[in-house]
What does this fold into?
Amino acid sequence: QVQLVESGGGLVQAGGSLRISCAASGTIFTITTMGWYRQPPGKQRELVASIAKGGSTNYADSVKGRFTISRDNAKNTAYLQMINLKPEDTAVYYCNVLTVGPSYWGRGTQVTVSS
It folds into this structure.
């Protein structure tokens, strides 16, 4: 079992920055890829960014150049640094990890960008 706890969400003005974190605990040695998804109000959940254990990254086109995903394997934590935030980035952001077995989700952290 892997437990995920997200933190760092909040309210920010358009153009601002925010960093959210995802701390993993439990059978962390099984984790391969860590990622962030988001679910805007009334819309489906979508992939924002992911990072493999070796460090390779993948981003949604809508966030390329503005968001950076990173991970600290020693701390079992993934981060999403967001700059130049836009109102359309408003969503609940969920941490997701893939393991050698099942995948796991955090409970989410709200990011609200005001115009």
